[in-house]
Design brief:
- With about 450 residues, this protein is an alpha+beta fold.
- The chain folds into 2 domains: about 290 residues, Polyamine Oxidase, Chain A, domain 2 (Alpha-Beta Complex); about 110 residues, 3-Layer(bba) Sandwich (FAD/NAD(P)-binding domain), CATH 3.50.50.60.
- It has 14 helices and 18 strands.
- A 7-stranded mixed beta sheet has the order 6-5-14-15-16-13-17. It has a 3-stranded antiparallel beta sheet with strand order 9-10-11, with no helix packed on it. A two-stranded parallel ribbon has the order 1-8.
- Helix 3 crosses helix 6, helix 3 runs parallel beside helix 14 and helix 4 packs across helix 6.
- The protein is globular.
- It binds flavin-adenine dinucleotide.
- Flavin-adenine dinucleotide binds next to strand 1, strand 13 and helix 14.
Length: about 450
Protein backbone atom coordinates (compact mmCIF):
# COMPACT_ATOMS: atom_id res chain seq x y z
CA UNK A 1 0.00 0.00 0.00
CA UNK A 2 1.40 3.35 -1.03
CA UNK A 3 0.29 6.40 0.97
CA UNK A 4 1.01 9.95 -0.17
CA UNK A 5 1.27 11.41 3.36
CA UNK A 6 4.04 10.57 5.80
CA UNK A 7 1.36 9.88 8.39
CA UNK A 8 -0.97 6.88 8.11
CA UNK A 9 -4.74 7.15 8.08
CA UNK A 10 -5.94 9.48 5.32
CA UNK A 11 -8.70 11.67 6.78
CA UNK A 12 -8.41 9.55 9.92
CA UNK A 13 -4.96 10.86 10.81
CA UNK A 14 -4.11 13.33 13.55
CA UNK A 15 -1.51 16.03 14.10
CA UNK A 16 0.14 17.39 17.19
CA UNK A 17 1.27 20.76 18.55
CA UNK A 18 2.95 20.87 21.95
CA UNK A 19 0.64 18.84 24.25
CA UNK A 20 -2.44 18.92 22.00
CA UNK A 21 -3.49 16.41 19.33
CA UNK A 22 -6.33 16.92 16.84
CA UNK A 23 -8.06 14.58 14.42
CA UNK A 24 -8.43 16.07 10.96
CA UNK A 25 -11.57 14.25 9.86
CA UNK A 26 -13.31 12.12 12.47
CA UNK A 27 -15.74 13.53 15.00
CA UNK A 28 -18.33 10.82 15.24
CA UNK A 29 -18.63 7.39 13.69
CA UNK A 30 -22.13 6.02 13.14
CA UNK A 31 -23.76 2.63 13.61
CA UNK A 32 -21.18 0.01 14.58
CA UNK A 33 -23.86 -2.69 14.31
CA UNK A 34 -24.37 -1.93 10.61
CA UNK A 35 -22.67 -4.18 8.07
CA UNK A 36 -19.65 -1.86 7.54
CA UNK A 37 -19.55 -1.25 11.30
CA UNK A 38 -19.23 -4.98 11.98
CA UNK A 39 -16.65 -5.36 9.24
CA UNK A 40 -14.57 -2.54 10.73
CA UNK A 41 -14.93 -4.17 14.15
CA UNK A 42 -13.77 -7.55 12.79
CA UNK A 43 -10.72 -5.98 11.12
CA UNK A 44 -9.76 -3.83 14.10
CA UNK A 45 -10.84 -5.80 17.22
CA UNK A 46 -8.38 -3.92 19.40
CA UNK A 47 -10.11 -0.55 18.86
CA UNK A 48 -12.27 0.44 21.83
CA UNK A 49 -15.25 2.62 20.94
CA UNK A 50 -16.92 5.10 23.25
CA UNK A 51 -20.54 6.07 22.60
CA UNK A 52 -21.48 9.74 22.67
CA UNK A 53 -23.82 9.13 25.64
CA UNK A 54 -27.51 10.05 25.87
CA UNK A 55 -27.02 13.06 23.61
CA UNK A 56 -25.86 12.55 20.02
CA UNK A 57 -25.84 16.14 18.78
CA UNK A 58 -26.73 19.56 20.13
CA UNK A 59 -28.09 22.18 17.74
CA UNK A 60 -27.94 25.91 18.39
CA UNK A 61 -30.38 27.51 15.94
CA UNK A 62 -31.78 31.05 15.87
CA UNK A 63 -34.21 31.05 18.80
CA UNK A 64 -33.90 27.36 19.67
CA UNK A 65 -31.55 24.85 21.22
CA UNK A 66 -32.35 21.28 20.24
CA UNK A 67 -30.75 18.20 21.76
CA UNK A 68 -30.81 15.20 19.44
CA UNK A 69 -31.08 12.08 21.62
CA UNK A 70 -29.06 8.92 20.99
CA UNK A 71 -32.19 6.90 21.76
CA UNK A 72 -34.13 6.89 18.49
CA UNK A 73 -37.46 6.47 20.29
CA UNK A 74 -36.90 9.73 22.16
CA UNK A 75 -36.48 11.76 18.94
CA UNK A 76 -40.20 12.20 18.17
CA UNK A 77 -41.15 13.32 21.71
CA UNK A 78 -38.05 15.58 21.75
CA UNK A 79 -39.10 17.28 18.51
CA UNK A 80 -42.68 17.66 19.74
CA UNK A 81 -41.50 19.27 22.98
CA UNK A 82 -39.08 21.61 21.19
CA UNK A 83 -41.54 22.68 18.48
CA UNK A 84 -44.77 22.54 20.49
CA UNK A 85 -46.61 20.52 17.83
CA UNK A 86 -47.31 16.94 16.86
CA UNK A 87 -44.61 15.22 14.79
CA UNK A 88 -45.15 11.75 13.29
CA UNK A 89 -41.72 10.38 12.39
CA UNK A 90 -42.85 6.98 11.15
CA UNK A 91 -43.05 7.86 7.40
CA UNK A 92 -39.61 9.51 7.58
CA UNK A 93 -38.09 6.50 9.30
CA UNK A 94 -39.63 4.11 6.77
CA UNK A 95 -38.39 6.18 3.84
CA UNK A 96 -34.84 6.50 5.13
CA UNK A 97 -34.66 2.75 5.84
CA UNK A 98 -36.04 1.96 2.40
CA UNK A 99 -33.60 4.30 0.64
CA UNK A 100 -30.61 2.96 2.55
CA UNK A 101 -31.49 -0.65 1.66
CA UNK A 102 -32.14 0.26 -1.96
CA UNK A 103 -28.76 1.93 -2.34
CA UNK A 104 -26.84 -0.92 -0.72
CA UNK A 105 -28.65 -3.59 -2.78
CA UNK A 106 -27.94 -1.62 -5.92
CA UNK A 107 -24.22 -1.30 -5.19
CA UNK A 108 -23.97 -5.00 -4.30
CA UNK A 109 -25.54 -5.98 -7.62
CA UNK A 110 -22.86 -3.89 -9.38
CA UNK A 111 -20.25 -6.08 -7.73
CA UNK A 112 -21.87 -9.18 -9.14
CA UNK A 113 -21.14 -7.74 -12.55
CA UNK A 114 -24.68 -6.88 -13.61
CA UNK A 115 -24.96 -3.84 -15.81
CA UNK A 116 -26.10 -1.07 -13.54
CA UNK A 117 -29.17 1.02 -14.19
CA UNK A 118 -29.23 4.62 -13.03
CA UNK A 119 -30.46 4.75 -9.44
CA UNK A 120 -32.79 7.69 -9.18
CA UNK A 121 -34.03 9.30 -6.00
CA UNK A 122 -35.24 12.83 -5.29
CA UNK A 123 -33.29 15.49 -3.46
CA UNK A 124 -33.53 15.47 0.32
CA UNK A 125 -35.75 18.57 0.21
CA UNK A 126 -38.14 16.94 -2.28
CA UNK A 127 -38.35 13.77 -0.20
CA UNK A 128 -39.10 15.66 3.00
CA UNK A 129 -41.63 17.83 1.18
CA UNK A 130 -43.63 14.68 0.36
CA UNK A 131 -43.75 13.59 3.98
CA UNK A 132 -46.38 15.22 6.11
CA UNK A 133 -44.04 16.94 8.56
CA UNK A 134 -44.13 20.45 10.04
CA UNK A 135 -41.57 22.71 8.27
CA UNK A 136 -39.47 23.22 11.43
CA UNK A 137 -39.32 19.43 11.97
CA UNK A 138 -38.06 19.05 8.40
CA UNK A 139 -35.36 21.63 9.04
CA UNK A 140 -34.23 19.83 12.18
CA UNK A 141 -34.29 16.37 10.59
CA UNK A 142 -32.02 17.62 7.80
CA UNK A 143 -29.92 19.75 10.18
CA UNK A 144 -26.96 17.33 10.05
CA UNK A 145 -26.49 17.98 6.33
CA UNK A 146 -22.88 18.97 6.96
CA UNK A 147 -22.13 15.26 7.57
CA UNK A 148 -22.38 14.76 3.80
CA UNK A 149 -21.77 18.37 2.80
CA UNK A 150 -24.84 19.43 0.80
CA UNK A 151 -27.93 21.39 1.83
CA UNK A 152 -31.30 19.57 1.41
CA UNK A 153 -32.11 21.30 -1.90
CA UNK A 154 -28.97 19.87 -3.48
CA UNK A 155 -28.29 16.58 -1.71
CA UNK A 156 -29.51 13.16 -2.77
CA UNK A 157 -32.07 11.67 -0.41
CA UNK A 158 -29.80 8.59 -0.42
CA UNK A 159 -27.14 10.62 1.40
CA UNK A 160 -29.73 11.96 3.83
CA UNK A 161 -30.99 8.41 4.45
CA UNK A 162 -27.48 7.03 5.01
CA UNK A 163 -26.59 9.76 7.51
CA UNK A 164 -29.97 9.56 9.28
CA UNK A 165 -29.81 5.78 9.68
CA UNK A 166 -26.12 5.67 10.58
CA UNK A 167 -26.51 8.19 13.43
CA UNK A 168 -30.00 7.07 14.48
CA UNK A 169 -28.64 5.60 17.70
CA UNK A 170 -25.98 8.19 18.50
CA UNK A 171 -22.33 8.08 17.52
CA UNK A 172 -19.04 6.60 18.60
CA UNK A 173 -15.48 7.74 18.99
CA UNK A 174 -12.40 5.52 19.02
CA UNK A 175 -10.19 5.45 22.10
CA UNK A 176 -6.89 7.08 21.20
CA UNK A 177 -8.65 9.16 18.51
CA UNK A 178 -8.82 8.53 14.78
CA UNK A 179 -5.18 7.30 14.49
CA UNK A 180 -6.10 4.15 16.41
CA UNK A 181 -8.07 3.06 13.30
CA UNK A 182 -5.04 3.43 11.03
CA UNK A 183 -2.78 1.63 13.50
CA UNK A 184 -5.20 -1.29 13.90
CA UNK A 185 -5.75 -1.55 10.13
CA UNK A 186 -2.02 -1.46 9.60
CA UNK A 187 -1.65 -4.43 11.97
CA UNK A 188 -4.41 -6.28 10.06
CA UNK A 189 -2.79 -5.52 6.68
CA UNK A 190 0.66 -6.64 7.84
CA UNK A 191 -0.71 -9.76 9.52
CA UNK A 192 -2.03 -10.78 6.09
CA UNK A 193 1.28 -10.20 4.36
CA UNK A 194 0.62 -6.63 3.26
CA UNK A 195 3.23 -3.89 3.35
CA UNK A 196 2.70 -0.14 3.75
CA UNK A 197 4.97 2.59 2.41
CA UNK A 198 4.30 6.07 3.73
CA UNK A 199 5.21 9.31 1.99
CA UNK A 200 5.10 7.63 -1.43
CA UNK A 201 2.62 8.86 -4.04
CA UNK A 202 1.44 6.78 -6.94
CA UNK A 203 2.14 8.96 -9.96
CA UNK A 204 0.75 6.88 -12.81
CA UNK A 205 -0.95 3.66 -13.87
CA UNK A 206 0.14 1.61 -16.87
CA UNK A 207 -2.70 -0.02 -18.83
CA UNK A 208 -2.39 -2.30 -21.84
CA UNK A 209 -5.19 -4.10 -23.66
CA UNK A 210 -7.59 -2.72 -21.03
CA UNK A 211 -5.72 -4.49 -18.22
CA UNK A 212 -3.73 -2.87 -15.43
CA UNK A 213 -0.04 -3.73 -15.87
CA UNK A 214 2.07 -1.34 -13.80
CA UNK A 215 2.00 1.45 -11.26
CA UNK A 216 4.56 4.24 -11.12
CA UNK A 217 5.74 5.53 -7.78
CA UNK A 218 8.07 8.40 -8.62
CA UNK A 219 10.73 6.93 -10.89
CA UNK A 220 9.97 3.34 -9.86
CA UNK A 221 7.71 1.24 -12.09
CA UNK A 222 6.14 -1.79 -10.44
CA UNK A 223 4.40 -4.65 -12.23
CA UNK A 224 1.02 -5.48 -10.76
CA UNK A 225 -1.84 -7.87 -11.39
CA UNK A 226 -4.46 -5.77 -9.62
CA UNK A 227 -4.79 -2.36 -8.01
CA UNK A 228 -7.25 -1.17 -5.37
CA UNK A 229 -7.55 2.61 -5.71
CA UNK A 230 -8.60 4.18 -2.43
CA UNK A 231 -7.62 7.70 -3.36
CA UNK A 232 -10.90 8.97 -4.80
CA UNK A 233 -12.48 8.73 -8.25
CA UNK A 234 -11.16 12.03 -9.61
CA UNK A 235 -7.60 11.39 -8.52
CA UNK A 236 -7.75 7.90 -10.01
CA UNK A 237 -8.69 9.36 -13.41
CA UNK A 238 -5.69 11.68 -13.20
CA UNK A 239 -3.33 8.68 -12.96
CA UNK A 240 -4.54 6.85 -16.07
CA UNK A 241 -2.92 7.18 -19.49
CA UNK A 242 -4.44 10.22 -21.28
CA UNK A 243 -6.20 8.08 -23.89
CA UNK A 244 -8.55 6.85 -21.13
CA UNK A 245 -9.97 10.34 -20.61
CA UNK A 246 -12.37 9.84 -23.54
CA UNK A 247 -13.76 6.53 -22.29
CA UNK A 248 -17.46 6.93 -21.29
CA UNK A 249 -16.62 5.68 -17.76
CA UNK A 250 -13.92 8.34 -17.29
CA UNK A 251 -16.11 11.05 -18.77
CA UNK A 252 -19.01 10.12 -16.50
CA UNK A 253 -16.86 10.21 -13.34
CA UNK A 254 -15.11 13.41 -14.41
CA UNK A 255 -18.55 15.00 -14.82
CA UNK A 256 -19.53 14.39 -11.19
CA UNK A 257 -18.85 17.45 -9.04
CA UNK A 258 -16.43 17.32 -6.11
CA UNK A 259 -17.76 17.93 -2.61
CA UNK A 260 -17.29 21.14 -0.64
CA UNK A 261 -13.96 22.28 0.74
CA UNK A 262 -13.55 23.15 4.39
CA UNK A 263 -11.64 25.10 7.00
CA UNK A 264 -11.02 23.70 10.50
CA UNK A 265 -10.37 25.76 13.57
CA UNK A 266 -8.19 23.85 16.04
CA UNK A 267 -8.11 24.99 19.66
CA UNK A 268 -5.70 23.87 22.39
CA UNK A 269 -7.23 24.37 25.85
CA UNK A 270 -5.67 24.82 29.26
CA UNK A 271 -8.44 22.94 31.08
CA UNK A 272 -11.66 20.95 30.94
CA UNK A 273 -14.25 22.64 28.65
CA UNK A 274 -17.26 20.91 30.29
CA UNK A 275 -18.00 23.75 32.75
CA UNK A 276 -18.20 26.04 29.69
CA UNK A 277 -21.03 23.89 28.26
CA UNK A 278 -19.06 21.51 26.02
CA UNK A 279 -19.67 17.76 25.96
CA UNK A 280 -18.92 14.56 24.06
CA UNK A 281 -21.65 15.41 21.53
CA UNK A 282 -21.18 17.42 18.32
CA UNK A 283 -22.29 21.01 18.62
CA UNK A 284 -23.97 22.42 15.51
CA UNK A 285 -23.96 26.18 15.13
CA UNK A 286 -26.66 27.08 12.62
CA UNK A 287 -27.09 30.76 11.84
CA UNK A 288 -30.19 30.09 9.78
CA UNK A 289 -32.96 27.48 9.85
CA UNK A 290 -32.92 26.96 6.11
CA UNK A 291 -29.52 27.61 4.51
CA UNK A 292 -29.45 28.49 0.83
CA UNK A 293 -25.81 27.56 0.40
CA UNK A 294 -23.29 25.31 2.12
CA UNK A 295 -20.27 27.54 2.04
CA UNK A 296 -19.02 30.66 3.72
CA UNK A 297 -17.42 33.30 1.50
CA UNK A 298 -16.17 36.05 3.84
CA UNK A 299 -16.15 38.49 0.89
CA UNK A 300 -19.96 38.66 1.02
CA UNK A 301 -21.09 36.81 4.14
CA UNK A 302 -20.24 37.95 7.65
CA UNK A 303 -20.65 34.44 9.10
CA UNK A 304 -20.84 30.84 7.88
CA UNK A 305 -24.40 29.55 7.41
CA UNK A 306 -23.44 26.61 9.61
CA UNK A 307 -20.46 25.09 11.35
CA UNK A 308 -19.99 22.19 13.72
CA UNK A 309 -17.83 21.92 16.78
CA UNK A 310 -16.42 18.88 18.47
CA UNK A 311 -14.52 18.31 21.70
CA UNK A 312 -12.51 15.15 21.02
CA UNK A 313 -10.84 15.09 24.42
CA UNK A 314 -14.30 14.69 26.01
CA UNK A 315 -15.21 11.81 23.69
CA UNK A 316 -12.30 9.66 24.79
CA UNK A 317 -12.19 8.91 28.55
CA UNK A 318 -8.55 7.77 28.14
CA UNK A 319 -7.55 10.97 26.35
CA UNK A 320 -3.95 11.99 27.03
CA UNK A 321 -2.54 15.51 26.67
CA UNK A 322 -4.38 18.80 26.74
CA UNK A 323 -8.09 19.25 26.09
CA UNK A 324 -8.96 20.24 22.53
CA UNK A 325 -11.79 21.62 20.43
CA UNK A 326 -12.34 21.93 16.70
CA UNK A 327 -14.83 23.76 14.50
CA UNK A 328 -15.48 22.98 10.82
CA UNK A 329 -17.05 25.27 8.21
CA UNK A 330 -17.29 24.92 4.44
CA UNK A 331 -15.75 27.34 1.95
CA UNK A 332 -16.08 27.77 -1.83
CA UNK A 333 -13.29 26.40 -4.05
CA UNK A 334 -10.66 28.94 -5.03
CA UNK A 335 -11.37 31.20 -2.05
CA UNK A 336 -7.82 31.27 -0.78
CA UNK A 337 -4.95 33.04 -2.55
CA UNK A 338 -1.78 30.92 -2.91
CA UNK A 339 -0.35 29.60 0.35
CA UNK A 340 2.55 31.66 1.67
CA UNK A 341 1.29 34.98 0.26
CA UNK A 342 0.39 37.93 2.49
CA UNK A 343 -3.22 37.79 1.27
CA UNK A 344 -3.45 34.10 2.26
CA UNK A 345 -2.24 34.86 5.79
CA UNK A 346 -4.62 37.81 6.14
CA UNK A 347 -7.67 35.86 4.99
CA UNK A 348 -6.75 33.02 7.32
CA UNK A 349 -6.49 35.38 10.29
CA UNK A 350 -9.84 37.02 9.48
CA UNK A 351 -11.65 33.72 9.14
CA UNK A 352 -10.04 32.35 12.27
CA UNK A 353 -11.29 35.36 14.27
CA UNK A 354 -14.86 34.98 12.96
CA UNK A 355 -14.95 31.24 13.71
CA UNK A 356 -13.63 31.85 17.19
CA UNK A 357 -16.41 34.40 17.74
CA UNK A 358 -18.98 31.89 16.49
CA UNK A 359 -17.95 29.42 19.15
CA UNK A 360 -17.42 31.89 21.99
CA UNK A 361 -20.81 33.48 21.41
CA UNK A 362 -22.39 30.13 22.29
CA UNK A 363 -19.78 28.99 24.83
CA UNK A 364 -18.31 32.18 26.35
CA UNK A 365 -16.73 30.22 29.21
CA UNK A 366 -14.33 28.67 26.74
CA UNK A 367 -12.48 31.97 26.16
CA UNK A 368 -10.18 31.91 29.20
CA UNK A 369 -9.17 28.30 28.44
CA UNK A 370 -7.84 28.94 24.94
CA UNK A 371 -4.05 28.69 24.69
CA UNK A 372 -3.53 27.68 21.07
CA UNK A 373 -5.48 28.63 17.93
CA UNK A 374 -4.81 27.43 14.41
CA UNK A 375 -6.79 27.30 11.17
CA UNK A 376 -6.46 24.47 8.65
CA UNK A 377 -7.42 25.43 5.09
CA UNK A 378 -8.02 23.52 1.84
CA UNK A 379 -4.32 24.11 1.14
CA UNK A 380 -3.51 21.82 4.11
CA UNK A 381 -5.86 19.13 2.75
CA UNK A 382 -4.21 19.36 -0.67
CA UNK A 383 -0.74 19.22 0.79
CA UNK A 384 -1.29 16.30 3.13
CA UNK A 385 -4.02 14.30 1.38
CA UNK A 386 -3.60 15.37 -2.24
CA UNK A 387 -7.16 16.72 -2.45
CA UNK A 388 -8.96 19.84 -1.22
CA UNK A 389 -12.44 18.28 -1.13
CA UNK A 390 -13.86 17.32 2.27
CA UNK A 391 -15.97 14.32 1.26
CA UNK A 392 -14.70 13.26 -2.19
CA UNK A 393 -17.54 13.32 -4.71
CA UNK A 394 -20.47 15.57 -3.87
CA UNK A 395 -23.51 13.62 -2.62
CA UNK A 396 -25.84 14.86 -5.38
CA UNK A 397 -28.72 12.91 -6.98
CA UNK A 398 -26.58 12.92 -10.15
CA UNK A 399 -23.84 10.95 -8.34
CA UNK A 400 -26.13 8.10 -7.35
CA UNK A 401 -27.79 8.10 -10.77
CA UNK A 402 -24.40 7.61 -12.46
CA UNK A 403 -24.29 3.93 -13.56
CA UNK A 404 -20.50 4.10 -13.99
CA UNK A 405 -19.76 4.87 -10.36
CA UNK A 406 -18.98 1.45 -8.95
CA UNK A 407 -16.05 -0.62 -7.73
CA UNK A 408 -15.48 -2.41 -11.04
CA UNK A 409 -13.80 -0.22 -13.64
CA UNK A 410 -13.43 -0.92 -17.37
CA UNK A 411 -9.72 -1.52 -16.69
CA UNK A 412 -9.40 -5.19 -15.75
CA UNK A 413 -7.72 -5.63 -12.40
CA UNK A 414 -8.34 -2.01 -11.34
CA UNK A 415 -11.04 -1.38 -8.73
CA UNK A 416 -12.17 1.76 -6.97
CA UNK A 417 -12.55 1.69 -3.18
CA UNK A 418 -13.20 4.23 -0.43
CA UNK A 419 -15.83 6.81 0.35
CA UNK A 420 -16.58 7.74 -3.26
CA UNK A 421 -18.52 4.53 -3.85
CA UNK A 422 -21.12 4.91 -1.11
CA UNK A 423 -20.69 8.08 0.95
CA UNK A 424 -17.83 10.19 2.31
CA UNK A 425 -17.68 8.88 5.87
CA UNK A 426 -15.61 6.37 7.80
CA UNK A 427 -18.25 3.65 7.51
CA UNK A 428 -18.97 4.70 3.91
CA UNK A 429 -15.27 4.16 3.15
CA UNK A 430 -15.37 0.72 4.84
CA UNK A 431 -18.43 -0.20 2.74
CA UNK A 432 -16.51 0.98 -0.34
CA UNK A 433 -13.56 -1.21 0.67
CA UNK A 434 -15.81 -4.24 0.93
CA UNK A 435 -17.32 -3.58 -2.50
CA UNK A 436 -13.83 -3.25 -3.99
CA UNK A 437 -12.67 -6.53 -2.41
CA UNK A 438 -15.74 -8.34 -3.73
CA UNK A 439 -15.26 -6.83 -7.17
CA UNK A 440 -11.76 -8.35 -7.28
CA UNK A 441 -12.83 -11.67 -5.81
CA UNK A 442 -16.59 -12.31 -5.76
CA UNK A 443 -15.96 -15.58 -3.90
CA UNK A 444 -14.84 -13.79 -0.73
CA UNK A 445 -16.94 -14.62 2.31
CA UNK A 446 -18.33 -11.71 4.31
CA UNK A 447 -16.66 -11.22 7.68
CA UNK A 448 -17.98 -9.37 10.67
CA UNK A 449 -21.46 -10.86 10.45
CA UNK A 450 -22.98 -11.95 13.74
C1 LIG B 1 -13.44 17.90 8.48
C2 LIG B 1 -13.97 16.52 8.24
C3 LIG B 1 -14.67 15.89 9.24
C4 LIG B 1 -15.17 14.60 9.05
N1 LIG B 1 -15.82 14.00 10.08
C5 LIG B 1 -16.27 12.74 9.93
C6 LIG B 1 -16.90 12.07 11.01
O1 LIG B 1 -17.05 12.63 12.09
N2 LIG B 1 -17.34 10.80 10.80
C7 LIG B 1 -17.18 10.15 9.63
O2 LIG B 1 -17.60 9.00 9.50
N3 LIG B 1 -16.57 10.76 8.57
C8 LIG B 1 -16.11 12.02 8.70
N4 LIG B 1 -15.48 12.66 7.66
C9 LIG B 1 -15.37 11.97 6.37
C10 LIG B 1 -14.35 10.86 6.40
O3 LIG B 1 -13.21 11.26 7.10
C11 LIG B 1 -13.97 10.48 4.96
O4 LIG B 1 -15.08 10.44 4.13
C12 LIG B 1 -13.31 9.13 4.92
O5 LIG B 1 -12.20 9.11 5.76
C13 LIG B 1 -12.90 8.85 3.49
O6 LIG B 1 -12.03 7.75 3.51
P1 LIG B 1 -11.27 7.31 2.20
O7 LIG B 1 -10.42 6.16 2.58
O8 LIG B 1 -12.22 7.17 1.09
O9 LIG B 1 -10.37 8.58 1.79
P2 LIG B 1 -9.19 9.29 2.55
O10 LIG B 1 -9.29 9.13 4.03
O11 LIG B 1 -9.15 10.69 2.01
O12 LIG B 1 -7.90 8.49 2.06
C14 LIG B 1 -7.37 8.64 0.79
C15 LIG B 1 -5.87 8.51 0.93
O13 LIG B 1 -5.27 8.47 -0.37
C16 LIG B 1 -4.02 9.13 -0.25
N5 LIG B 1 -3.59 9.49 -1.60
C17 LIG B 1 -4.10 10.45 -2.41
N6 LIG B 1 -3.45 10.46 -3.59
C18 LIG B 1 -2.51 9.48 -3.51
C19 LIG B 1 -1.52 8.99 -4.42
N7 LIG B 1 -1.39 9.50 -5.65
N8 LIG B 1 -0.71 7.99 -4.01
C20 LIG B 1 -0.84 7.44 -2.77
N9 LIG B 1 -1.78 7.87 -1.88
C21 LIG B 1 -2.59 8.86 -2.26
C22 LIG B 1 -4.32 10.32 0.63
O14 LIG B 1 -3.14 10.86 1.18
C23 LIG B 1 -5.22 9.68 1.68
O15 LIG B 1 -4.48 9.17 2.75
C24 LIG B 1 -14.97 13.94 7.82
C25 LIG B 1 -14.25 14.57 6.80
C26 LIG B 1 -13.75 15.85 7.01
C27 LIG B 1 -12.99 16.52 5.92
Amino acid sequence: MFEHHRVLGGLSHAFRRKRWTWDVGVHAVGDLESRPGRLLGALTPEVIWHPSGPLGDRFELPGLRFDWPSDEDALGPGLEAALGQTVDLLPWRRQTLYLQDRLLDHLASGVRGRPLQPLNAPTTAALLEELDLPPRARDLLTGRWAYHGLIPERSSSFAHAMVSRSYARGSHYPEGGAPSLGLALRAAIEAHGGHIELGRSVTGLGVERSRIQTISVGSEIIEVSSVVAGLGAHRLLGLLPPRWSTHPWARALAGLPASVQHVSLFLGLSGDPRPAGAGPWNLWLHNTWRPTRETWDPRDQARPPASYASFPSLKDPQHRGGHTASLVAFVPPGLFPPRGTVAYGELKRRMQAVLLDELLERLPGLGPLIEHVELGTPASSTRFLASPSAYGLAATPQRYACPWLRARTPVHGLVLAGGDLVLGSVLGAVAGGELAALALDPGLQPIGKP
